[in-house]
Amino acid sequence: MGGISFLPDEMPFYLTDGGVLRTMRISRTWSIVMYLPFLICFVLFLIVPLVYGIWISLHSWSVFGGNGGFVGFDNYIAILTPGNIYSTSFYLGLKNTLIFVAISVVPLVVISLALALLVDAIPKKLKVYFRTIFFISYAVSVTAVSAIFKWLFTGNGGYVNNLMNSIGLSPINWLNEQPYAWVSILVATIWWTIGFNMILFINALDEVDETMYEASSLDGANWWDKFAYITFPSIKGVFVFLTIISVIASFNLYGQTLLITAGGPAQSTQSLIMVIQQMVFTQNNLGIGSAMAIVMGIVMMAIVAAQYFYSFRKE
Amino acid sequence: MKKSKTKTALVVIAASIIAFLFLLPLIFMIFTSFKALGEAMSSSALLPKSWTAENYGSIFGIGAEVPVLRWLFNTGLVTIAGTALVVFVDVLAAYSLARLNLPGKKFFLSIVVAALTVPGIVTLFPAFYLFRQYALIDTYAPLVLIYSANTMGVFLIYSFLRGFPKDLEEAAFIDGASLLQILRFVIFPAIRPVVATLSVLTFLTIYNDFLWPSIVTSSDEMKTVTVGVANLVQGANFVNPGRMMAATVVATMPALIIFVAANKYFVRSVVSSGIK
Fold it and tell me: Of A4, A205, B108, B204, whose Cβ has the fewest other Cβ atoms within 10 Å?
């Protein structure tokens, strides 16, 4: 590189010139001054709420009435022991959320990978336009997505049913019947979030070593061989990362089901965050709500950790 | 060679068809906003038969029932302030971690990474309750401040700086530059692409956030545009698809324009550089 790399990597370079101690002290002061704004924000808006949330979950606590006394693990026992109103709504939300995770993660990852492979095969000059188009829904908020898809799928006067009517198909009650309600939510979610996954896949595909494709072509490898033995192994890290990201995103299902189906029909799309939100505000029970949020967080972290270790156990 | 040309053409045609299908929801949104009530409810054509601006009139007109402009103002203010705060705080912290002699560096770096795994839902309601205790609900404070705790930006810039050679900084130091001069003339120009990426990502995150602004705002004037539109979807206004879509167009356009303008920053793999 030609530069003067006379310092070990871990050492700050401000120690060099005369007065080692003085510059070291300056560097140290500045390092603290510069880190401090972030640390203050981080502690105030993440650490304090985190600890406070755990504290609240051990109390009988309401938003409007405040602290009603220490109850130990009673809130956790209530939401985990079947047969009471808290555990019934918790398990309902958990079940619905897990159903959504199960039906959404595979399409979210597979379709975005397929799109990325398609875009990758497009000549360079046109590529950037397609990249932009497929990524554009990333800029749309969940409420706008919901407004659009609710009017696409609404049973009476919705565009999809009007279209089906005009070609002689009988309309479907998309939002008030299962499995159509899940289909509507799934289509809206795929449209909304697929672009981000695709962009990361495209970036990963750009970094695959081209010479390996050329060599394999000489060996007579077909498209599938190339994908299975060259492409996929090269992008596996991104693949695992996006699977994990998609699981987390699907776990956080909230806006789509609140706005498109309002949790229906018969609470079958009532997601866990909707349950927690109602527990805190409608039922005015912050203690139970906090315990639910913490259990949800633990379940999410456990699933993500399992995925992570399962994916990399051999390497 | 000929064979690969036909193949490329087929790929482009297939991609074009999929791209058109992909854009349909947005096309539907825009065209429906120009349809009158009767047509919007019954039409199976995308294009309006008779164009009308009455839906936009009901939003922007004098005495409009829906204060979309006020919501857009709130969103704009909160998004710009929040993004500026995140970028300021994250750049300084990342530089301190990557280059300076920060005491307890290992510990501070590990909490940055560990925080990435904490699900947002765990801190959401206690944070709301704390803001409520200090009577800050329905003010701009919670709408701006909460995003500064996200450590993703610190991690992104830190990763970039670790891969960025120190030679220039060393040379500048030997030439007698101060720390602030090094930051201004060496570091800032170098990290501009990452900062741009972080800014756009943060901007869109704040602009489009829904759950948090929906619980820390209560009056109509303090709502952000996502919360306002959500209330329209849930409320009585929903019976008119044309008006609903007009509100959605107004709410969505600023973010779409910024997205398309900033799109080039997503083109290179800066976003993925942090995850490998």
Answer: A4
